[in-house]
Amino acid sequence: MTGIDETRRGLLIGAGLLVLGIKPARATPEAMKDAIRTVIGDAPLREGKVTLDVPPLVENGNTVPVTVAVESPMTDADYVRAIHVFNEKNPQPFVITVRLTPRNGRARIATRMKLADTQTVIAVAEMSDGSFWKASAEVIVTIAACIEDIN
Amino acid sequence: MARALINVPATAKPGEIIEIKTLISHPMETGYRVGYDGAMIPRDIIANFTVTYNGDEIFRAQLSPAIAANPFVSFCTVAKESGTLTFHWTGDNGFTATETAKITVE
Known about the structure:
The complex is a heterodimer of chains A (151) and B (106).
Chain A: H1 2-21, H2 29-40, E1 45-47, E2 50-53, E3 57-60, E4 64-70, E5 80-87, E6 94-99, E7 108-113, E8 119-127, E9 132-143
Chain B: E1 4-7, E2 11-12, E3 17-24, E4 46-53, E5 56-63, E6 72-78, E7 83-91, E8 95-105
Parallel strand pairs in B: 2-8
Antiparallel strand pairs in B: 1-3, 3-6, 4-5, 4-7, 7-8
């Protein structure tokens, strides 16, 4: 009797693990921090210089306008080398990475992104002197993107 | 061939900072959605976008599945001389697209 019970318990635990295992992959705030670390290494990440413009409340997470501007003279001596955008709760933490040079004249980019949930978006600027600056924005999403089924 | 829309000012003064806007038709399928048959829809995105100005690279972007369908990217550049801007997108399943735009600097 106990033998059968144990088998059943084993099966239930197995089924439980299976359900957990097939849950869709999700980025977490920790995954976003790890992703930012892979880009900036051990360098300190300071608040400032970056302006991240995202609507605070979006109805449709499938297309959310994002604008990132960085304060910089964009001269050969002092320019923005790259702008990275990260998110917290989409399946993957990366959004976009752009490489800039003094030829861009102004460090300002715009794109449209998907947001799977209400979450924080972070923009990181990589300067020519090797310093990193960030700005973050909280976005409330009413219709999520990315992981919804099409039917 | 994917349809692309490019917005570059036709004329600019030397040294003027101009804004360039680009949009290309593409589904940007994330690879995280389930289709009608219950199977995952494979990822199909544009991963790279580069722009050259008379042969010199002026802009490069790496896109991820988190970019919305029909990717829109805008950026700035300094108008140096008259010539051609070439826009090049590459992505999954061998996707490539190239567009050009002319600019007159005077």
